[in-house]
Write a structure and sequence with these properties.
There is one protein chain. 82% of the residues lie in helices and 0% in strands. It has 194 residues and is mainly α. It has 9 helices and no strands. It is found in: Endoplasmic reticulum membrane. This is Reticulon. Its main location: endoplasmic reticulum. Pfam families: Reticulon (PF02453).
Length: 194
């Protein structure tokens, strides 16, 4: 699955990547102008019209004695969608593990188990208030989809230059971090212990 996603984002098959990108962008742009209920209803109606049309076409071919009239979706109708007891237990355990780990992290941050981590989260939320004032969530999702389909390709084409600049920024940040730790009392010993 991971290699399929990578192939999609690196545009190995331009038709597939283009179709997925166009579909995502069209859906997101529709959501900018219409409610999610309306978009979901229209997409469901479009899918239903396509399947009904195909089924009626097969019946017409049967009436003209040019086909057997079998349901073209019979293979999908015959698929067994039930879960075994083991699959159900594994899935419920995965969901429970995710819920417990999320609750543990939220407790860690919001009940201030570590003051520095809670302050970092507070700073992140403070920055997000400014981002939220400029962009709505759907605009950020659209920008994210565009970045998802362009940044990996750009990085692959200009990897040497990007790595050089990232190295410079990382180096400067580590120097700045060392200076800050040296200035703040009590963090110098923590930095040495790390």
């Amino acid at each position: 699955m991971g290699s399929k996603v990578a192939d999609l984002l690196y545009w190995k098959d331009t038709r597939t990547s283009g179709a997925v990108f166009t579909g995502l962008m069209a859906s997101l742009l529709c959501l900018l102008h219409f409610s999610i209920v309306s978009v979901a209803a229209h997409l469901a109606l479009l899918g239903l019209c396509a399947t009904i049309s195909l089924r009626v076409y097969c019946k017409v071919l049967q009436a003209l004695h040019r086909g057997d009239g079998a349901n073209p979706f019979q293979a999908y109708l015959d698929m067994d969608l039930t879960l075994t007891r083991e699959q159900t237990e594994r899935l419920s355990q995965q969901i429970a593990t995710f819920v417990v780990s999320t609750a543990t992290q939220l407790r860690h941050f919001f009940l201030v188990e570590d003051l520095v981590d809670s302050l970092k989260l507070a700073l992140l939320f403070y920055i997000l208030t400014f981002v939220g004032a400029v962009f709505n969530g759907l605009t950020l999702v659209i920008l994210g989809v565009v970045a998802l389909f362009t940044v990996p390709l750009l990085y692959r084409q200009h990897q040497a230059q990007i790595d050089q600049y990232v190295g410079l920024v990382t180096n400067q940040l580590s120097h700045l971090k060392a200076k800050i730790r040296a200035k703040i009392p009590g963090t110098g010993s923590k930095a040495k212990a790390e």
